[in-house]
Amino acid sequence: MVLCMCGKQASLRTPWSDCNPFYACPDQELNCGFFDYIDLEMSHRSIDVIHGLIRGGRNMFEEQLRERGMKQESSKNI
User: Fold this and answer.
1) Are 41 and 21 in contact (CB under 8 A)?
2) Distance in angstroms (rounded) separating the CA atoms of residues 16 and 19
3) Residue 10 and residue 23: Cα distance in Å, rounded?
4) Whole-angstrom distance, CA of residue 39 vs CA of residue 37
5) Bridge partners, 9 (sequence order)
6) What DSSP line would sit under 41-55, residue for residue?
7) Count of alpha carbons within 13 Å of 39, Cβ hemisphere only?
8) What is the arrangement of strands in the sheet containing 35-37, beginning at the earlier edge strand?
9) How far apart are CA 63 and CA 66, in angstroms?
């Protein structure tokens, strides 16, 4: 068990990147600032999945922006 600086059990968090998981203070309001990486190497599969999810989100966001741009252009022509 890992304790943060305020004596609570630190929560394990997984970032949406190829960085390693880390421990952080579990208290969102009174956050003591505790942060500690877990020095484990992520598997290639985990890295591929996370990168795929990030790319998928970006592609979806870019598509929504294009659609909004097309809608705005068509409303100007009316």
Assistant:
1) no
2) 8
3) 6
4) 6
5) 3
6) PPPHHHHHHHHHHHH
7) 0
8) 11-13, 22-24, 35-37
9) 5
Q: Which two structure tokens, joined as six digits, stand for 34?
A: 């505790």
Residue 8, both tokens: 């609570």
| 59-74 confidence digits (pLDDT tens) | 777 777 888 876 666 5
Tens of pLDDT, residue by residue over 27-61, are: 878 889 898 888 777 788 888 888 888 877 777 77
Tokens of 28: 């969102």
Structure tokens at 36: 């500690």
Element holding 21 (H helix, E strand)? none
CA distance 56 to 75: 29
Let me know how many helices (H) and strands (E) the chain has, helices first: 1, 3
Q: At 1, list the tokens.
A: 């068990």
